[in-house]
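Page 42, continued from yesterday. The earlier attempt failed because a stray header line got pasted into the input along with the sequence. Redoing it now with the clean sequence only.
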Amino acid sequence: MIAQPRHLVQAAILHAILFFFLFVGVQCHQDVEPVPVVQGVLIDPNELKNLKPPTPPTPDKKPDDANEGPQQIVKDTDVVADEAKQKQEKAAAEQKKLDDQKAEEQKQAEARAAEEQKQKEEAAKAEELKQQQEAQKQAAEQAAALKKKQQEEEAKQKAEAAAAAAADEQRKKEEQLRKEAQEEQQAQAAAEAKRKQAEQAQREAERRKRAEELQKQLGAESAELTAQMQNEWAAQLTAALQQAWARPPGTDQTLKAQLQMVLAQNGTVQSAKVVGTSGNVAFDDSVVRAAYRASPMPLPRDPSAFVPNINICFSPNPRNCQ
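This time it went through. Structure tokens are written below.
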């Protein structure tokens, strides 16, 4: 319980009166030495440290004047009461100041806490917004990557389909060209076979005719006639080669090659080779192919003029072999 100022004042007055009577009683007895008056004041224990003890009365002051004692006591009591009141008011003011300061600090602390909470909430919102933006960005990137992958897959499928279609079209064209070439080759082979058959028939007829003519002239012919028939036969062989020969592109007219052939009795070419090269491999090979293509070769009019091994000079221009 906090003492009120009026209580302090009343207590001080009562103590002052008590000391007054004690003092008066002592003055009435001359043998008793006067004792100093001790003044007491009821104060708050919390203010004990801040209070100063009252100034004791001066020892050398003579208490001769009986009226001065009570007045001094009352005066000192009023002073002590005033000081106590001032100190109490000062303590109350300081307490109020401390309370106001604490209230202000509490208010500032609450404001700081509210600001920190606001900042935390804003930071949380910013972080959440950042995470949302990051999630949206990742989702957009994933969607873009998926779309790009789908586009690449579609482009790849289209390219593969186009390549397959082009390959199929190319295969069909090649098949058609191969078929046409085969048909053309078969037609050419048939025509060539027919031509060779006709030539063979013609050569056989001529051979028989020459054989008959030669048979008629056996007795009268000489070695010169045999040589003449062989030259004639060589010209026939050259003509057959010329007819069967396929000119390679860019063949020079001045080329010539010496061809050696081994013939059967019916004129079939058993072997053919170039024994005197022209210096042009393509031309030499074309001459060998012409020999096999012209087989069987025409026979001489006189069977006696036939020889199995024969050498023929062949050239695009027959004059080169004369």
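Notes: Residues 63 and 69 are 7 Å apart (CA to CA).
Reminder to self: strip header lines before submitting.
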